[in-house]
From TrEMBL:
The keyword Flavoprotein does not apply. SUPFAM superfamilies: Thioredoxin-like. Cu cation binds at residues 83, 87, 171. This is SCO family protein. PANTHER family: ELECTRON TRANSPORT PROTIN SCO1/SENC FAMILY MEMBER (PTHR12151), LINALOOL DEHYDRATASE_ISOMERASE DOMAIN-CONTAINING PROTEIN (PTHR12151:SF25). InterPro entries: SCO1/SenC, Thioredoxin-like_sf. Disulfide bonds join 83-87. The keyword Disulfide bond applies. It comes from the Bacteria. The lineage of its organism: Bacteria, Pseudomonadati, Pseudomonadota, Alphaproteobacteria, Rhodobacterales.
Length: 208
């Protein structure tokens, strides 16, 4: 009987430790995640491990920093304007989500950073973003600068530059949500519809 009681107490104590440990892990080192109810993505080191400081060139030719760019909730996407299918579709989806958010009273923007600065000059990027949405910012720079920015978000890409004018670029298709003073809080897959994306973004904005 005594052995049984000890066993029961041991199981109970283990359960308490497991539940308490899970609670502590979910809270994180800061003592709580204000966006816990909004999250579905999992990032090694947390979403806060994505992003950082950069200086790039916008579509007007002006040099800008990350703090000058991310002044409102931003849907950040890495791609290239010569992309034959994925980039235009993903960027159009992000643009549509901005309209849905605007209808909800949420002022957001999209940010497009090229991974192909050789062809994506400020003028080319400007033509791309202006055709998609007035609240889409296009950024380019030197190859070293755009590569460094891409790595900040752990974004994969591979230039297949064969010397022709029509080479392709392999790249990841995530869209990242960056909030002013909060940094990167989430990433979204390309299978979300504009309405679904807007709903997810709104959750983070309202919780911030």
């Amino acid at each position: 009987m005594k052995d049984r009681q000890i066993l029961i107490l041991g199981v109970a104590a283990t359960a308490i430790l497991l539940v308490g440990g899970a609670f502590w892990l979910n809270r994180g080192p800061s003592g709580g995640d204000e966006f816990a109810q909004c999250r579905t993505g999992v990032v090694a080191g947390g979403a806060g491990a994505l992003g950082g400081a950069f200086e790039l060139t916008d579509e007007t030719g002006k040099r800008v920093t990350d703090t000058q760019v991310f002044t409102k909730p931003s849907l950040l996407y890495f791609g290239y304007t010569y992309c034959p299918d994925v980039c235009p579709l993903d960027s159009a989806r992000n643009a549509e989500a901005l309209d849905v958010l605007d209808e909800q009273g949420i002022d957001a923007q999209a940010v497009f950073i090229t991974v192909d600065p050789k062809r994506d000059t400020p003028e080319v990027v400007a033509d791309f973003t202006e055709n998609l949405h007035e609240k889409m910012i296009g950024l380019t720079g030197t190859l070293a600068e755009t590569d460094a920015a891409s790595k900040l978000w752990k974004n994969y890409y591979k230039l297949n530059d064969d010397g022709t004018d029509f080479y392709l670029v392999d790249h990841a298709t995530n869209t990242y949500l960056v909030l002013p003073e909060k940094g990167t809080v989430e990433f979204f897959r390309r299978d979300l519809s504009p309405d679904e994306l807007a709903e997810r973004v709104a959750c983070f904005v309202e919780a911030s």
